Amino acid sequence: MTTIDRISTALARIAPSRTNAMTDRAIALRAAGHDIISLSVGEPDFATPDHVKAAAKAALDADDTRYTAVAGTLALREATVLHFRRDLGIAVPPSQVIVSAGGKQAIFHALMATLDPGDDVLIPAPWWVSYPEIVRFAGANVVALQTTPAGGYRVTPEQLEAAIGPRTRWLLLNSPGNPTGATYSAADLIALGAVLRRHPQVLVLSDDIYAPLRYTPGDHATLAVACPDLAPRVLTVSGVSKSHAMTGFRIGVAAGPAWLIRAMGTLQSHNSGNACSIAQAAAVAAFNGPQDFLCDWRDRFRVRRDRVVAAINAIPGLSTPVPDGAFYCMIDAAPLMPRFGGDDEALAMHLLDHGVAVVAASAFGGRDGFRISFAADDEKLDRATARIAKALT
Asked: Would you state the CATH architecture of domain 9-47+293-392?
C-alpha cells in the first residue's frame, strides 16, 4: 500500500535551510507585532546601485523579456569574464562560464552532475548550510573537516591529506567564508594545492561569492590562480548578490573546465533553463559598471564588524574572533551552554524570545554558539547586542 504524500528518498535525506527558517520565523513574529531585530539573514542592507537598477529598467523598456541561451546571454558571460579576470585573477573564455539563478544553483548543478551514491565530499566545518544538504541529496557522503577559531577556521594540509580517500570526489572551499568570515591566503592555498596534486581524482569547488568583501590587505587569493596547474579541476563560483546588494535578482556565475560547464548546462536546461533575462541585463551593468562604491561598503562593513566584535567579546560567556571577510561573526557560547542543556538551538530560541534572531552554530556543522550577520545599521546592531547581553547576563 502506498500513500499519496510519500516524498522521494532523496528529498528525505535533507532538511530545510535553517538560516531561511529562522529568517521566516522572525518575519512572522514581526508581522504578529513583536519587536524583532533579525541578524540571521545573509544579505547586504545597502541599496542596489542606481546604474544596476537603471539597466534592469532599460531591459524592461526594451522588452528584453524572452528566453536567453541556457548558459546566459553572451553579454553577461563576457562581463563575467571581465569580473573573473579583474576581481579574481582568473582568465577564462566565455565558453567556460555559466550563468545560473543564484550561486546556490550553480553549486547544486555542479555537484548533482558529478556525484554518485557513495562518493565522498570534503567540507570544512562550520560550513554554509546548503553544502551538506546538496551532497546528501545526491546520495554522496559528507566528510566534515572540523576547524577551530584558534586555527582561523581554516583547514590545514594535514587535515586534508588525512581525509582524502579512494571515493573522495570534491573538496569545497569558501573564502571568505560563511558563517565564519575565514579567508585563505595564497600561501594557505598553495599548501593545500601540494596535497591535492597527489590526489588527481579530487575536484575543488571554490566559492568566492564574498571575495569583494575582504578586510585584509592585498589581493584576493583563489585556488585556480594560486595553483594554476590545478585550474583544470577547479570550479570557481561567484555572483552579484553580496558584492552589489542584488540578492533578489538571483544571478550566480561559475567558471571551470569546459566538460563540467557543459554538464552543468545540460542539467540546467532541464531544471530552470536560463536565469531571468532582466536580472541578467542588470548583472551586465554590475560587472561592467563602476566598482568604486565597494570601497565605501567595505569600510562601512569593517566599522560594523569591529563594533560588533567588541560588543560580543564584552558579554560574559561569549567570544568571537575577528572575521577577515564577509559580514558574519561565528560566536562561541560554550561557557553558557549548560544553561541550555547543551542545545544551541535552545540558545537561539532564547535570544529570539528577547527580540534578536540569530542562527544556531549547529545549523552550520558547528556547536555551542550562534552566527550573527552585521549587515545592519549601527543603531540596529547596538540594540541587538544590548538585547543579547541582557538575555544572557
From this structure: Alpha-Beta Complex (3.90)
